[in-house]
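In response to a reviewer's request, we include the raw inputs and outputs for one of the modeled complexes. The two entities were modeled together in a single run.
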Amino acid sequence: MESQSPPPPLRCFSDSHQSELFRDDGVQTVTSAEQRKVERSIQDVLTVYQQIHSLPQPTLLREQHYQYLKKGLRHLSDAYECLDASRPWLCYWILHSLELLEEPVPAAVASDVCQFLARCQSPTGGFAGGPGQHAHLAPTYAAVNALCILGTEEAYNVINREKLLDFLYSVKQPDGSFVMHVGGEVDVRSAYCAASVASLTNIITPTLFEGTHNWIISCQNWEGGLGGVPGLEAHGGYTFCGTAALVILGKEHMLDLKALLRWVTSRQMRFEGGFQGRCNKLVDGCYSFWQAGLLPLLHRALFKDGDMTLSLSSWMFEQQALQEYILLCCQNPAGGLLDKPGKSRDFYHTCYCLSGLSVAQHFGNKDLHHELILGKEENRLAPTHPVYNICPEKVAQAIQYFHQLPIPAQNGEPACAEDQS
Amino acid sequence: MSAVEEMENTSNSVLEEPEEEKGSSEYVEGEADMEEDEPVRGGYLFYRDRKEWADLEPVPQDDGPNPVVKIAYSDRFTDVYDYFRALLKNDEKSDRAFALTAEAIDLNAANYTVWHYRRILLQALEKDLREEMIYITAIIEDQPKNYQVWHHRRMVVEWLNDPSDELQFIAEILSQDAKNYHAWQHRQWVIQEYNLWDGELEYVEELLEEDVRNNSAWNQRHYVISHTTTYSPPEILEREVQYSIKQIKKAPHNESAWNYLKGILQAKGLSSYPGLLEQVEELRETYCSPYLLGFLVDYYEDALETNNNKYNQTETLNKALELCELLAQEKDTIRREYWRYVARSLQSKYGSGEISSPSSSNPTPMEQQETPSSD
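The model returned the following structure tokens for the whole complex.
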């Protein structure tokens, strides 16, 4: 009989793990009460796990997730009526999850997705939350990402690039920011959505992002992270959007990177292992991507800056602890992933928990790659691109395809026209 | 069975169990008396059965022949939205259209297309905006974490040019969830737009009294002071430093208070503040925490940076490196990789016995025009 080396010890079962519990200093507030509740529920999960498994080998429930995703890509219950204005998101969340799981999408299904997203495209440009709705930057981002995941010519050709550019101009504001939709609200998500789709489809004109980087920078606050608009509390989702947008625009060095690094690394929860979205708030599986996903971006930014002291093997967060949190606390046994124990599964959390798991498993890029897979080798997911959150090959392929095409002229004027106003 | 075959068999598969978040509409569908045209008392009548809507042809959703992410809408949902699409198609601007938008919103308050249309109707029909404020107040109370409802409120407040109810309303929402991001966003907008800074610092202090760990409140504190007195006057900065230290003493493991202290001092540089090191070292005995130790690292880093002749550079560096190792090994192990990086950075920058020349802490901004490449 082969002797197998025991799997590496899990951090959450170590003797010193208990010392990481939240200390309320005898002063109980809503914040500390909520935090302790979550820690207790995590402890319960860990205790049960230890009782069932003598040898802790966390397992990604691939088959169950696959079935959940496969079904959802076709049919969703009426519980999803609240996402009736976000159906391209559902496509993206599901397709990205499948690509991380390295599950192929049959050609017929891929074609159906293309045709559906084509119906979500607005005649005035951009994509809407569903057929017949108005265009909005969020479903536009999701639709373009979904189409790039599919990566066929049919998929790429769904996008009307000329109209997409018109749409982006129609939501651009004088101060450099973007509203999410005509007559809608401004926040830093819009800059990311715009930068993402524009860069992938090669429609960036000299004026499109004028002032945008300055506006994004003004969202970095005293905490080191970014808020949704200038003045607001630093928040993981908005920080990711702002940082990734700046990376696309080549302006990430205008951020106080050290302050941002301090802020984001401080968001990893010492007991749970996962990330919180804001200081003194609760852990949530989706921040496995929004927060942990910042570390690859920062690593690259610092590296480009000439930093010689960066690690060559790991990101600056506890990769194993995050994997433990996701695998032990965020999986629904019937498939799908979730925020934290006690919450329901949904496709948003499935997408971002898996994306975060991928970030935690893969360090580096294709040239310098170091893997840290917690549990069985079968837990390994495909790597994801930290800027776009689709697989790196799909990013490269899309960029290559669209860069063969000329940047559209704005408003039907010839591309060489100098006056772009 | 191959993946391909499995996929193809899903066409009429069993619909998902409602395990997902957000339950379906609670509305109990009354059985409309299909033989009569009059409204049935006590029951709900679909729009398709309402006489006064008979002139309008409902527009079904165009999902295409092989839909994906197809939602199993309830009958009521389908009916309302089929008629909404019809109104949109005809660009109808009527009271019945206005009433229908409320139903569509009730079914999905995140449908920004409906909200947009409602706003067009509000103006075209010259509706009573005070009534609309009452309406949106109720919707927000019910669904305070939705983007559209807050944006709608903002639009109505702008049209009325009347923010007089806002601070109280937002305070009410915050009393239910003191960290609601949309609420804080709306609050900051109202205060800035209408110059309502008076009393806000007091409000923040109330919230911090209730929960000293409310990071949103700490942020609001910073917001108010930055936009009013600023932190430039020494007496303001001193007051805020002492306030932070007071809160730290109450709950030493409250990260927000430590972050605030650092946040307000870092512009001038932590080591430029006289007596600060001593105050913090004093706290170390009784009120120690990973945040205190991290603060000391920041302090020493700033001292190294500014090459303050008060300190011996080598000693300072060693103290900083010691703390980084203490944090990495024992006090803040979740951030081990980070603290080790900080140590390496400090060592590289200030180490090897070299006296480093003062350099800016931020790299020269380089305008990098790089095509986004896959990493």
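As requested, we also summarize the result in words. The first strand of chain B starts at residue 70 and ends at 71. Residues 1-36, 354-375 of chain B have pLDDT under 50 and may be disordered.
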